Amino acid sequence: ATGESVEGKWDASDEHLMDGNGIWKYYGWACFVPTDWQAPGGFAHPFQWHNTASFSQPPIKFDFAHNGAEDITISFNTGLESAGPTWDYNQRHTLYSSLSKGVRQNFIIGALWDRTANGAFKVWHCIEGTDKNFVLRLDLSSIPTLTYLSPSNVGDIYLENGLYRT
């Protein structure tokens, strides 16, 4: 209703089962941004987590074009979702101030999945031809990383990789 998407969905994830267990889970992904790529005007989400409960926003999403700015940001709509909708933790963080085009972007993500403020989230990023090693771009702790409607309705979260855009 608000855009178009071409995404791969991974339903076998078990992040919701890790709620509060203190175990880190790691992910890696890479994407190529063509030299002629242009921001679609609103948003361009290449990597995001969704939830099977009826949440209004993906709990965590990467964005390559927030409001037309070609940078790399990550948004969190996590913790308890209330009417409005609002969340316990609703923040956008800039990982990189410009979107390097014509090269591969490499990411490693570490998550401590928790619906309370005991969660944590880290993102390492490496730009092909620019960075010799991965650079820690985001290091959050004491935040919720799961979204829920009630303690009994955390829902199954699943991972999507592709492109969702306006």
Question: What labels describe this entry?
Answer:
166 residues, globular, 54% strand, single chain, seven-stranded mixed β-sheet
Describe the structure.
The protein has 166 residues and is an all-beta fold. It contains no helices and eleven strands. Strands 1, 3, 4, 5, 6, 10 and 11 form a seven-stranded mixed beta sheet that branches. The protein has a four-stranded antiparallel beta sheet with strand order 2-7-8-9, with no helix packed on it. Strand 5 and strand 6 (86-96) form a beta hairpin. The chain starts with a strand and ends with a strand.
* Sheet/helix structural class: mainly beta
Mean pLDDT: 86
The main β sheet shows up as: 7 strands, mixed
SSE string, helix = H, strand = E?
EEEEEEEEEEE
The percent range for strand residues is over 45%
Question: From the alpha-carbon coordinates, what is the Rg to the nearest angstrom?
Answer: 15 Å
- End-to-end separation in angstroms reads 10 Å
Q: What is the overall number of helices?
A: 0
User: Percentage of helical residues?
Assistant: under 10%
Q: List unreliable stretches of 5+ residues.
A: none
**Shape, principal axes of CA atoms:** globular
Counting DSSP E segments of at least 2 residues, the number of strands comes to 11
What is this entry, summarized?
This protein has 166 residues and is mainly beta. The protein has strands spanning 4-10, 24-33, 44-51, 60-63, 72-82, 86-96, 103-112, 119-127, 135-143, 147-148, 157-165.
